[in-house]
Here is the input.
Amino acid sequence: MTLSPDLAARDRPFRVRAQDPDDLAVVSAYLQDAVLPLAEIAYEPAAERFVLVAARFRWEKALRASVKAEGGEPDERVHCGVRFEEVTAARVRGADLKTERGRMLNLLQIAWSDGHVDLICAEDVTIRLDVRRLACHVEDLGEPWPTVFRPTHED
Here is the structure.
């Protein structure tokens, strides 16, 4: 992964490629609390590709703004495209992609486990991808928009 150490200090779109578990951990942190519409998920078996578009909470900006005084800039979300290559199978537990297309998921973590990528969501929903190797591309799409809803987690 090529990631400049001062990325968080700049107001740039997030764009990375994850090729190992450490890279994926960074991607997972940036995508934590992304809102993922089931309608924006697609598995293309012939191309061995899994893609999604989520509304990513811009944690890098929120954390930077938290050290500023009151009255700073609002929190933001941005559309973010995620693509996994060399996917041999995709399964969903806890949701039905055909009948619940309008359902929104809250992405909590992306985890690697010996040939599998798990997209772990709230409400006990998991999307498991069987992969030959880890090949993930992530890119912010378009302009961010302000949000008053900052994700929170119970301890």
Remarks:
- The beta strands are 15-18, 34-37, 41-44, 49-57, 75-85, 87-93, 104-113, 116-121, 125-131, 136-147.
- The mean pLDDT is 88.
- The chain has one domain: 15-143.
- Residues 21-31 form the longest helix (11 residues).
